[in-house]
Design goal:
Strand content: under 5%
Radius of gyration: 38 Å
Shape: elongated
Number of helices: 23
Strand order of the largest sheet: 1-2
């Protein structure tokens, strides 16, 4: 009774101090904090200080209240009961049990206030960093020195469901705490649970639907997907292969409650295995969500470098990559990197892979943002000696047809790709020079009609490369590039005149030297090029007229006599009066 009466008196005193000026000053808040830390008789100052932890509160007052409450709860953390135990102790008559239940409620309120200060976009940068550091201190202390995964899960849940930008908070998380293995471990664990819960809510919308980026801002689930992806990106995968010792944020590390021997989970090999499993589960759960189009592209652009090397079993991504590769367009172009790694390093078998790759060769490829990586992978995919002659000829013919409409930088890389194809597969070198005899006869023995000039048996619209008719065609498109308007292209065509069958005299061209080309690079190289002879426009004889007779077959130009300053009229022979021009 004495304890409760003194607490009531302390609370009434705080109300009197507040009523004098209408709001607590910095000195009054500091005094309340000192009284709270000095004796249990001032416990009711805790709710008063908790009320001051708001993003809209003055910075000095909020910081003073936060520091006082952190100093109050840290020594009491081992004695705070769990949430389930506190609920059972509320109706108890034991004062210590009642105090424990009350302490648990205030601690939960304090943790919620720290999360709000950390996540809210209205918080000042100073109070956000202090609140987040205080929160991570409670996560570190936990109970019995273990990582406090329960409150950390609440934090990540709030971050995922935040409607405003979380970039400032993620920068703090990534720069200060992502280097600790237990923080990464429990981040992946919580994200796996949150993502599975979110996936069960979005199954009705269809997992294969790619949503528009403009509509994603109005969809709460899409915002959550963006936040999950940002957390995964800001939680870098540790170098599992090189790490021999992992740094831990908490005292115990990532040892679970069921492990009696803490040294069992402390070995680097054991920690490495656990991290890989959690990392894999978190990313698999995320990739099952209906990803927005912008997130989908970002994932495909980086997954082969940042995700696949750190997974426990990368082959499990085969469904994701094959589904992405079958979509077509730019998605298929970007999915090729990951699919190529699974095929070459993890023994993935993909039926009709080259048919899909053949279909991706369109003029839009040379305008795509990730064309550099795609063209390098295209060259790598056609490097195998097991590629048949029909397939190699179809790709060479398809590329040469694209050279007619490709930009100058695209024409350069096409020539380099065809050069490598002809060198790797000598059996298709006949495409460079193919003569069709005029007395060709068909299989029945009857004389066939002479083939029309300009007829090409290659069918560019055929999706099956084995049925395109490339083996009966030629690379006549490359010969037209001799007269290309860009000098760099016309000069580079001469590289195909070499005898590519003699492999000792030639070498493959590095596609990386051409894959990043553009109009700007072609122009820059041409400007830097040193020219020995400058081409000039001149006439060996002085011209007598504006046009030559050879410019207009069937026309004759006669010079009429000119009297005075009058313009003379030149008429064409046999032409109507409308066909007259002035000179």
């Amino acid at each position: 009774m004495a304890k409760s009466s003194s607490a009531t008196a302390s609370a009434s005193g705080a109300k009197k101090r507040k009523s004098k000026s209408g709001a607590l000053t910095h000195e009054e808040v500091k005094s309340l904090g000192h009284e709270l830390l000095s004796s249990r008789t001032h416990l009711n100052h805790a709710p008063t200080l908790l009320a001051l932890l708001s993003p809209s509160a003055p910075l000095k007052i909020a910081l003073e209240a936060l520091i006082s409450l952190q100093s109050f709860f840290e020594p009491l953390l081992p004695s705070i009961p769990s949430a389930s135990a506190a609920a059972a102790e509320v109706a108890s008559s034991d004062p210590e049990l009642v105090f424990g239940a009350w302490l648990r409620q205030r601690f939960d309120e304090f943790v919620a206030a720290l999360i709000e200060l950390s996540v809210s976009p209205h918080s000042d940068d100073a109070i956000r960093e202090v609140a987040f550091d205080a929160f991570m201190d409670f996560v570190k202390l936990g109970k019995d020195g273990r990582f406090h995964s329960a409150i950390y899960h609440k934090f990540l849940h709030a971050v995922v469901h935040a409607t405003d930008s979380i970039d400032p908070l993620l920068e703090l998380l990534g720069s200060k705490y992502s280097k600790y293995a237990d923080v990464c471990y429990f981040t992946y664990t919580s994200l796996d649970k949150i993502t599975n819960s979110l996936g069960s809510q979005t199954t009705g919308s269809g997992k294969d639907g790619l949503q528009n980026g403009d509509d994603s801002s109005e969809n709460r689930n899409v915002i959550c997907i963006h936040n999950i992806y940002n957390i995964l990106v800001h939680t870098p995968a540790l170098d599992f292969q090189k790490e021999t010792k992992f740094d831990m944020w908490s005292t115990v590390g990532i040892s679970l409650k069921g492990e009696k021997n803490s040294s069992e989970g402390s070995s680097a090999t054991h920690i490495n295995k656990r991290l890989k499993v959690k990392f894999t589960k978190a990313w698999l759960a995320f990739l099952k969500l209906p990803l927005p189009l912008d997130v989908y592209k970002e994932v495909l652009a980086t997954i082969h470098q940042n995700v696949i090397p750190s997974m426990s079993n990368p082959a499990i991504l085969c469904d994701f990559f094959t589904r992405s590769y079958d979509i077509g367009g730019v998605i298929s172009v970007m999915a090729l990197s990951g699919l190529f790694i699974l095929m070459t390093q993890h023994n993935l078998e993909y039926p009709k892979f080259y048919d899909k790759l053949y279909a991706l060769l369109t003029p839009a490829v040379f305008m795509a943002k990730h064309r550099s990586v795609f063209l390098q992978l295209l060259d790598a995919c056609l490097k195998s000696s097991y590629v048949s002659a029909h397939l190699a000829a179809s790709f060479a013919k398809r590329l040469s047809r694209l050279a007619l409409s490709a930009p100058p930088a695209g024409a350069l890389i096409i020539i380099a790709l065809i050069h490598n194809l002809l060198r790797r597969h000598p059996s298709i070198n006949f495409l460079v020079h193919w003569e069709v005899p005029q007395d060709d006869t068909n299989t029945s023995g009857e004389a066939s009609q002479p083939k029309k000039v300009g007829a090409d048996p290659f069918n560019n619209e055929e999706t099956d490369p084995t049925k395109s008719g490339a083996m009966r065609s030629s690379l006549w498109e490359i010969d037209t590039l001799r007269h290309h308007y860009t000098p760099a292209v016309s000069r580079f065509v001469a590289s195909l005149e070499n005898d590519l069958t003699v492999r000792a005299k030639t070498s493959e061209m590095k596609i990386t030297d051409f894959s990043s080309g553009s109009y700007a690079t072609v122009f820059r190289d041409e400007v830097r090029r040193r020219i020995k002879q400058v081409p000039l426009a001149f006439y060996r004889t002085t011209p007598t007229s504006l046009f030559q007779e050879s410019d207009f077959p069937g026309w004759t130009f006669e010079q009429a006599s000119v009297e005075g300053n009058e313009n003379s009229i030149v008429e064409t022979s046999g032409a109507s009066p409308a066909k007259r021009s002035r000179v």
